[in-house]
């Protein structure tokens, strides 16, 4: 009888322990399941954030690439314009140097033409042609008469005058000093350069023919 009671007690204990273990496993599974959900959400959110950052990074990289590509034609055009301008300026400087050195010029003929051109554009009958003292000393004899003849007007009085400020070419004034025509070589180059520059650029195919 004692053995039977003892056996029954053992069986009951075993059943209680088994039930406790089963309930414990159920609780652990539930706990694991409950813990897994936040972890999964956190992982999902982290992955979403990573993808968003990657997407934003790619979008920003694409935007910067497009901006960079957009600046390439502008920068290329700027560099091209700078090179063209430097080339044209070198031509201007070389022409100025040659005029100053009077290279390739029949200088007497040049002075006659410059003075006659100025006189034809001015009103009056008497004019004073100012030129460098050295030019007057070497070219003066008969120069006034040549200028008057070349101007193609009559009656006409042309006189010569020394002017140290005239390094090359002439400055023509009427007898009353109301009209002045600066036909020095350097001044004439500066006056004509904008159009000469355009023509040079067109002929060298640096710019289109219609571009000013």
Key structural traits:
4-stranded mixed beta sheet; alpha+beta; hypothetical protein PF0899 fold; 212 residues; single chain; rod-shaped
CATH superfamily of the domain at 102-203: ATP synthase, E subunit, C-terminal
Strand content: 5-15%
Second rung of CATH, namely the architecture of the domain at 102-203: 2-Layer Sandwich
Q: Helix coverage percent of residues?
A: over 70%
Could you name the ranges where pLDDT drops below 50 across 5 or more consecutive residues? none
The CATH topology assignment of the domain at 102-203 is hypothetical protein PF0899 fold
* Alpha-carbon Rg, integer: 50 Å
Number of strands: 4
> In angstroms, what separates the terminal alpha carbons?
128 Å
Structural class computed from helices and strand pairing:
alpha+beta
Assembly of the depicted chains: single chain
What average pLDDT do the residues reach? Answer: 86
What is the global morphology?
rod-shaped
Helix-strand pattern: HHEHHEEEH
Molecular structure report:
This protein is α+β, with helices and mostly antiparallel strands and 212 residues long. It has a domain at 102-203: hypothetical protein PF0899 fold, CATH 3.30.2320. Helices cover 70% and strands 11% of the residues. It has 5 helices and 4 strands, in the order H-H-E-H-H-E-E-E-H. It has helices at 2-101, 107-120, 133-139, 143-151, 185-203; strands spanning 126-131, 157-162, 169-174, 180-184. A 4-stranded mixed β-sheet has the order 2-1-3-4. A hairpin with a 5-residue loop joins strand 3 and strand 4. Helix 1 crosses helix 5 (185-203) and helix 2 (107-120) packs across helix 4. The longest helix is centred in the N-terminal third of the chain and has 100 residues, at 2-101. The N and C termini lie far apart (128 Å). The mean pLDDT is 86.
